[in-house]
Amino acid sequence: MSEVTEIDFASAMSELSGQASGTEESRVASGISILISGIHALGQRVDALEETMVRQFEGLHFQKIEQQLAALRNSESVNQKLFDSLHEELISYRDNFVRDLLQKPFIRDLLGLFDDLNRLAAEATKHAAGEGANEVANQLRANVENTLHSLVEILHRLEVSEIEEKETVDRTLHRVISVEKADSVEEDGRIVTRLKRGFIWRDKVLRPEEVVVRRFS
Questions:
Q1: Mean pLDDT over all residues of the chain?
Q2: Which strand (E) or helix (H) includes residue 179?
Q3: CA-CA distance, 48 to 99, in Å (whole number)?
């Protein structure tokens, strides 16, 4: 993401935060519109980020190694299958290296934004369902939900997916934050509340889901 985009997006978030503390719903709605624009701009630059990462690392030692492998490939003393296997491993290593080095910190920042938008969406939903809610409150809720949906689409493009909802705790996917007493052994390990969504990136748990579970003793 370019420096200008980061500044614009930070300004939008700052303005939204300031407006959310005011009393006029129309000002908050305006701030949400600015945030939506920032999310859309972020999505448009994800592809550019991918291309930039590849270009930056093509000039490193990976290219030299591939040239050396190409020379070996022309040699009759090297088994073709061995070369192909080695070449595939090199490509896989390069791709993993680039993604872990550049994408992972970027994705973690997006997850922080996801958490903030989730909290904002919960507040907007509560406000829209409250007594005296009007058209501005309903529009605010819709705008926040649309923005959250746009962010989820960006995460999907980066191969990030949410951990699917489960009825019982799985230590490989969940982090138990608190426990409640269970009345029977059948309830032991049952998830009561999902506190923070968990995510999987490229078939690995990037962030476990934080949950409250029942415990029978």
A1: 75
A2: strand 174-181
A3: 14
**What integer pLDDT is reported at residue 35 of this predicted model?**
64
In a domain, 169, yes or no: no
Domain encompassing residue 197? 174-215
Note whether 138 and 60 are same-domain residues. yes
Q: Which helix (H) or strand (E) holds 173?
A: none
Q: Does 135 lie in the same domain as 44?
A: yes
Residue 172 banded pLDDT, cuts 50, 70, 90: very high
Q: What is the dihedral of CA 132, 134, 140, 143, to 10 degrees?
A: 130
Instruction: Look at residue 6 in the predicted model and tell me its pLDDT.
Output: 44
Q: Which residue has the tokens 């030299």?
A: 64
Q: Which residues of 84-106 are buried (b: 16+ CB within 10 A; e: fewer)?
A: eebbeeeeeebeeebbeebbeee
pLDDT classification of 138: cutoffs 50, 70, 90: confident
Query: 91 and 58 in contact (C-beta within 8 Å)?
Result: no
Report how many domains make up the chain.
Answer: 2
140 inside domain: yes
DSSP conformational letter for 174: E
Same domain, 28 and 115: yes
- Global confidence as pTM: 0.60
Please check the confidence at residue 77 and state whether its pLDDT lies above 80: no
> Checking DSSP bridges between strand 174-181 and strand 204-207, what pairing results, if any?
unpaired
